[in-house]
What does this fold into?
Amino acid sequence: MRFIFDGDLHIHTYLSSCSRDPAETPERLLEYARDNCLSDLCVTDHFWDDKVAGASDWYKSQNYEHITSLLPLPKADGVRFMFGCETELDRNLTLGISRESFDLFDFVIIPTTHLHMGGFTCRGDEDAAERAELWKNRFDWLLEQDLPFEKIGVAHLTCPLIWSGHYIDVLRLISDDDYSRLFRKAADRGIGIELNFDAPDFGSDNDEVFRPYRIAKAEGCRFYFGSDAHHPRRLAEMKPLAEAIIDRLSLEESDKFRPR
It folds into this structure.
């Protein structure tokens, strides 16, 4: 059976410092879910745990007290509206959430490709080759941790924030063998792989963007969609984009990840 786009598990609200859009409310997100027949929805504002030292100035204010000011989430029949977060992995491989704090969330997404934060997630002056190594090493490190992978997603692995130079050059430097090794491990851990990228024309560059996801599927990984919406206009774009990605990857319902 063809993969049904019925969930968006990576959405920000006005509480995230990169949004602060007063229109990006839980009520608006629930409306989006109902309009698009989504059964699973998760709010994932940025979060750094007060129990973990090393927050950047940008992250310090985005603690648990801050993001829970959103609660309680509104409800609607047929929609599981989950409370999650997007945490961070710094350049020293410090994860911005303590092991015990995972119990506070329905779903936790962890980006390994936020390499635009020079001095915090990387030095900032790395070239494409160094960033390709960071891509592999950070993902590998995450998969080696003792974490509840059944409720974790790894966010936007082909995010342009890998490198502002030309992120496709970074992806080209990662071999099929490296992708296979990492995604085989990801499938074994049971972590969710996020589908979150713009590919409206499916041109030659997008072939490189799709390569890791094809390999991930072949290795048995499970996928979820994340709009990474910071503003309502992104919500309107998500369904046609998701449908195009589903077709391009020939995704089936058996390829779907759901947090447990």
In short: The mean pLDDT is 95. The longest helix spans residues 232-249. The helical segments are 26-35, 57-60, 64-67, 128-143, 167-172, 176-189, 204-218, 232-249. The chain has eight helices and seven strands.
